Amino acid sequence: MPTREVRKTAVRLSDGRQLIYFDWTARPGRDAADQRGLPPAQADCQLRYDPLLAAWAMYGARRQDRGYLPGAADCPLCPSAGGRYTEIPAGDYEVAVFENRYPALAESAGPASPPDALLPVRPSAGRCEVICFTSEHDASFAELTPDRVRLVTEALIDRTAALSALPGVAQVYCFENRGREIGVTQPHPHGQIYAYPFVTPRTAAMLRSARAYARRTGRNLFDDVVAAERTAGDRMVRAGRHWVAFVPHAARWPYELHCYPVRRVPDLASLRPAERAELADFELDLLGRFARLFAAPAPYVCGWHQAPARTGRAAFALHLELFTVRRTDDKLKYLAGSESGMDAFADDVLPEQAAARLRELG
Ligand SMILES: [Zn+2]
What we know:
Layout: E1 7-12, E2 18-23, E3 45-50, E4 55-60, E5 95-99, E6 121-123, E7 127-132, H1 146-164, E8 171-178, E9 190-196, H2 201-217, H3 221-232, E10 236-239, E11 243-246, E12 255-261, H4 273-292, E13 300-305, E14 319-324, E15 326-328, E16 331-332, H5 337-342, H6 351-360
Antiparallel strand pairs: 1-2, 2-5, 3-4, 3-6, 5-7, 7-9, 8-9, 8-13, 10-11, 11-12, 12-14, 13-14, 15-16
Helix pairs in contact: 1-4
Bound molecules: zinc ion (ZN).
Zinc ion (ZN) binds next to loops.
């Protein structure tokens, strides 16, 4: 399968943030200037370390100023048109990526505690970007064309490589939150890219498990988990030539899907053209099933788990994790005492039941 060339145009918004257009074909207006005259972007982010949990937390002082659920007439992610200026100066776009105006992570100045401090604090590093999947305000990812999904994947690959190369970046996470029940503040179809200056707790836990398993058995844990799910079969939702999708044995959410390439790779950039092509088909299919689960499309979080930029790359397996907080047409799963307080999940829906339901919707 031939590799198609993506056209990439990078510009600066009026406050200095970077914006990149990704297109399959040449489009006019990609050099349009941001007319808003925004004051220079100033990040004021810091990191604090919890020595009990061995985990960093992120603080961004400007995040309280974010817009909340604007309509199409006020949407900052729609193209600029008719004298209304948005985050996207062009009059249209295919896929656009820009630095978040209200980041949780950004290169920041500020004091750092001494290296031996019990309660460490340090200025933030890394970056938060927004990726817009389409210029159509009322669309959803599940309604994109396969061609557009491929372009989104190419943009995520480009951003993962670029952000991994920034000083201090340890891991890049690309995800979409969809639906106001999940806490989405902008309804326009978009995802986010977080370039963390640390390896996230969830990835660190997976890598600890994988290393312990390799010491004990000499084998790769991700390979064996995927093989065990395929053998069990009753949680499988879809198996293709290059990808498999299943509800994990110990799923935490009412409906949760994990999607792995058959050939283990550390990150999106390592996928071959045929794997990227089948991936677009899988993503649309799986999100379509989530859209048909309930009377209204299920709110969801859909995130790409990639190996850290510099550590654990041989052991980790790229995979997509997709879940919804909706249990029934009129009930949500809330993170209550056990989940919020103890990180211990309790569920009503057995993973095998969830898988059977998701298979029916194919
Ligand atoms: Zn919009």
